[in-house]
Amino acid sequence: MRFVAILLLTLFQGLAAAAAAVGDGESLVKASIVYNIARFVSWPETSGQDNAANLIICIQKDNQLAAAFSNLAAAQGANGGFQLRLIERFGVQNLECQVAFLSEEDLDHVDLSAMARDAILTVSDTAGFINDGGTIEIQRTGIKLGFSINRLIERLSSVSLSSQILQLAEKVI
Amino acid sequence: MHLCKDIYLTAALLALLLPAKAISQTNPSELAALSLEELLGINVYGENSLLEGNRWFLQYAYRSLEVGGYQHGTNRLGLDDVSFSPGSPRTASNYPVVPTEITQKIHAFSTGYRFSESFSVSVSVPMIEQNTDHLSIVPGFSEFKISTDGIGDIALNGSYILPSSGSQIYSVNVGVSLPTGSIDEVGDTPRNGPGTFERLPYTMQLGSGTYDLLLSTNFSNSGQVIDYGASLNSTIRQGTNDNDYRLGNNFGLRGWARYRWNQRFQPGIAVSFRHTDDIQGMDLGLTVPGPFPFPASITDPDNFGGRKAKVGLNARICVQESCNLFFLVEINKPFYQDLNGIQIKEKTEIALSAKFSF
Predict the structure, then answer these.
(1) Which among A19, A28, A143 is the nearest to B324, CB-wise?
(2) With an 8 Å Cβ cutoff, is A76 touching chain B?
(3) Residue contact A72–B31, C-beta within 8 A
(4) Architecture of the domain spanning A2-172
(5) pLDDT per residue as tens digits for the range B256-296
(6) With contacts defined as CB-CB under 8 Å, which chain A residues touch B42?
(7) How far is B51 from chain A (nearest CA, A)?
(8) With an 8 Å Cβ cutoff, are B39 and A32 in contact?
(9) Which of A77, A155, B207, B258 has the most crowded Cβ, counting Cβ within 10 A?
């Protein structure tokens, strides 16, 4: 029995390491949703242009979705895709982003109103994000992902979400 | 003939399920090519999630079952009620050999492959250890223990998730249990005196000896914080085994709810009911000559089956948020048992399992 216990422990240590190495599929789906939403957004300076070709998405390097965005950007590279900017810290650097994906920790030091005024579409998977001044909140609904929109912030940021995006949103406030 | 018919039926059902739509979200570029509607329709959470890498699974499950104390129907009996004592009348409801406690431990190793979000197959190999403590009036056997261990019946399963929308999942499972577990386990019993090895009772055998059809249907719903579901399952035995008996068919209903405390820890509760038929036919190797052919309650095929209801507490612990590797801890206690004939009642069941998807 002792041998079996050691064998199982070793096996599950190996499995745990393997599990950590396997890509997080949910993060990849979140990143893909953000990219897809952004394709249907018009910014003041890009009105009438192909959004996907000029899109710049920013995320902090230490965000747990950074790897997923990097993988998505690399996969999209050959097809035009979007530009990904991995930044040290929101609120310090002068941003040239159209989309900023924010973590819960980022919210402690960013000024969401200022980002909105700079026409940056702010997105996060932090619960309550749209109530705290963010524009789009990605959330899990049951076994699937969905998103909610704060239209007040959308108007403040002078970006325009397409009607298709508004129809697919679970909640619009 | 029954066996061939059942295998053909199972194969035909599996063949019907195979062309299920294969969605292959296997890499970032494939995901990026999906529309927003398609992305919002992906199952990202739970055991049926099919994201990158989640096609195979490996599972180890341990189950320990403790059985002790007698019941007839719903009435509790003491050991004195079921023990035959010299000088008192021998009847069909007292026995010269009395099992007092049975423990069963199962280590099950499973692997499976998910062809699509809808269809998966799996195989499960159980390793079984069983011990029974006895009291008897037979000289040299006043107290004795019998043990068996080895491979049990290997199960092959196909699972199909029905098309649905929203957070509800309906699935059907069709499987077959192969008679790989021994039904010829022997031990030193009082039947022919010390030093002789006789075939052991039904409870100590490792398999059913028959090809069994495994059928189940499941429903689950995932909310923001509470997941819940129910399942109907059955084991339908086919034909009669080489020792001239067939274990009872059984039918179960289980309801469960799980609180999603966070992505990594989800405690839950489950309530289950199971009806099991008694054994059909008889292993004559377990009987003794005379008016009372059954030396112990567990050698009488009528003393099997019944109705049991259990309540269980469990917890699912995910190693990481994506839950590629999770552990399940469960404890079940029966709160109602209506047993056929004179039987030892179930006390506690403990289950631990680990599942890794990759």
Answers:
(1) A19
(2) yes
(3) yes
(4) 3-Layer(aba) Sandwich (3.40)
(5) 999 988 778 999 999 999 999 999 999 999 999 989 999 99
(6) 29, 144-145
(7) 5
(8) yes
(9) B207
ipTM of predicted complex: 0.80
Q: Cα separation of A17 and A15, whole Å?
A: 5
- Assign domain B2-357 to its CATH architecture: Beta Barrel (2.40)
Share of chain B above pLDDT 90, in %: 65
Range B292-318 average pLDDT = 95
Contact B136, B119 (CB under 8 A): no
Interface of B to A at Cβ within 8 Å reads 25, 27-29, 31-32, 34-37, 39-46, 48-49, 51-54, 58, 60, 107, 166-167, 169, 221-224, 319-322, 324-325, 354, 356, 358
Amino acid identity at B133: D
Let me know: does B23 contact B116? Beta carbons within 8 Å.
Answer: yes
Token readout for B187 is 């031990």
Q: Where are the domains positioned within chain B?
A: 2-357
* CB of B303 closer than 8 Å to CB of B342: yes
Q: Which residue of B has its CA nearest to A32?
A: B32
The helix or strand, by DSSP H or E, that contains position B292, with its residue range, turns out to be none
Residue A32 distance to chain B (closest CA, Å): 6
C-alpha dihedral (A59, A61, A65, A67), degrees to nearest 10 = 120
